[in-house]
């Protein structure tokens, strides 16, 4: 099918496929960051429930290294802040890729005279 | 839904079949995730059961791998290291550790519920696409029959 397309359209189609892959990568990164954020928030909530003189441990590889409550709380708060920023930045990136995808899809459809059957769905589509 | 010529119909069917396959793969991944979350919940249950069973001074056999165990004595049941997530663990009393594990189970239940909702959405989308594929197939067959009839009439 792709072999029958004019070279310019084929180029656009390849760009579209690249964007689709990029969208999937960004979506996966966002999901991973959201999971880490939710885990850090849960740990911070748990920390609120326990005494401040509790002995804490931080996992380093297979080891549990002793640390203190304040250090753990500070580190987790920083982790939450950083992950919130990362999720926001990935959301923006996701929107940007979606916009680029739609723009390119429209260009390609116009180029092919509205025969857009082969390009169903958005960039993040399954 | 307009299919255009027979070639367009075949192409649409192929696209639908690819989309359905992608959704099936996504559903399988989500089902694996539910299974792994349930496994984590079972482990939390086992830990709660163990904490409720052993006492300070209890003799236990600690697994060292390969089906081998070494005998140990619990020094203090109120010194339990429990994972809080995000690479942190806390030393808690038996009650505190059980509380943490119960909270973990609740979080896991919520996550399982979310993933099950995602599975239901994927199933619904998949069912819609299958319906579209059936319609497209029927339409294509009708067109082929009409073409065959037209050729027969010409002869």
UniProtKB/TrEMBL annotation, chain A:
Any GO MF annotation of the entry: unfolded protein binding
Xref: InterPro entries: PFD_beta-like (IPR002777), PfdB (IPR012713), Prefoldin (IPR009053)
Any Pfam family matching the protein: Prefoldin_2
Main localization (coarse): cytoplasm
Keyword Chaperone: yes
Biased composition (Low complexity): 22-36
Keyword Cytoplasm tagged: yes
Domain of life (superkingdom): Archaea
Subcellular location: Cytoplasm
GO cellular component: cytoplasm; prefoldin complex
Keywords: Chaperone, Cytoplasm
Annotated stretches, region: Disordered: 20-39
Protein family membership: Belongs to the prefoldin subunit beta family.
Subunit structure: Heterohexamer of two alpha and four beta subunits.
Function noted in UniProt: Molecular chaperone capable of stabilizing a range of proteins. Seems to fulfill an ATP-independent, HSP70-like function in archaeal de novo protein folding.
Name of this chain's protein: Prefoldin subunit beta
Organism (species): Halarchaeum rubridurum
Taxonomic lineage of the native organism: Archaea, Methanobacteriati, Methanobacteriota, Stenosarchaea group, Halobacteria
Automatic annotation (TrEMBL), chain B:
Signal peptide: none
GO cellular component: cytoplasm; prefoldin complex
Coiled coil region boundaries: 6-57
Pfam families: Prefoldin
Gene Ontology MF term list: unfolded protein binding
Localisation per UniProt entry: Cytoplasm
Stated family: Belongs to the prefoldin subunit alpha family. Belongs to the prefoldin alpha subunit family.
Protein name (record): Prefoldin subunit alpha
Species the sequence originates in: Halarchaeum rubridurum
Lineage: Archaea, Methanobacteriati, Methanobacteriota, Stenosarchaea group, Halobacteria
